[in-house]
Amino acid sequence: MRYDRRLLLAVALLLAASPVLAHEFKLGSIVVERPWARATPAKVGGAYLTIRNRGRAPDRLVKVTSPAAETAEIHETRVERGMASMHRVEALEVKPGARVDLKPGGLHVMLMGLARPLKEGERLKLVLTFEKAGTIEVEAPVERAGAPGPKH
Question: How would you class 49 by CB atoms within 10 Å of its CB: exposed for 0-12, middle for 13-18, buried for 19 or more?
Fold first, then answer.
């Protein structure tokens, strides 16, 4: 009987941990954490995530695509003379042991030509290509329009 309780506890802990694990995607030494996107009223949107390099060599995010958009690019929001503007970033370096945050108001994935506006509660597929690690597909939950960050 004691063995059964331990087994049930282990299964319960695994089930409780699974939502957390679903928000982390690993590709070699690269870890993509907490991808998310905002609901959009139009066919343009943004996606956000954290990239960690747990390896000993730098890597670069060189391409982003999504089956939901005609184009996905890495952009950076800059404020110059009180005016915010977005600029395309060709590649994003992730140094060994470093973390790069893509978040509202900074670096982000710009989604253009969405097949349709993103709706809260949906999941958005993103395909990230790294120079050394290769390609990984992640799923980003779509949060409400204007959300400051992911719910999880």
Answer: buried
Q: Hey, what amino acid is at 145?
A: A
What is the homologous superfamily of the domain 24-143 according to CATH? PCu(A)C copper chaperone (2.60.40.1890)
- Cα–Cα distances (Å) from 27 to 76, 91, 136, in that order, read 24, 18, 7
70-98 pLDDT, tens digit per residue, is: 999 999 998 888 888 899 999 999 999 99
Structure tokens at 97: 């042991």
Q: How far apart are CA 7 and CA 5, in angstroms?
A: 5
Residues present in the chain in total: 152
pTM of the model: 0.83
What are the residue ranges spanned by the domains of the chain? Answer: 24-143
Query: What radius of gyration, in Å, describes the C-alpha atoms of the chain?
Result: 18
* DSSP β-ladder status, 92-94 and 30-38: unpaired
> What mean pLDDT value characterizes the chain?
88
Sign of the alpha-carbon torsion through 50, 51, 54, 56: negative
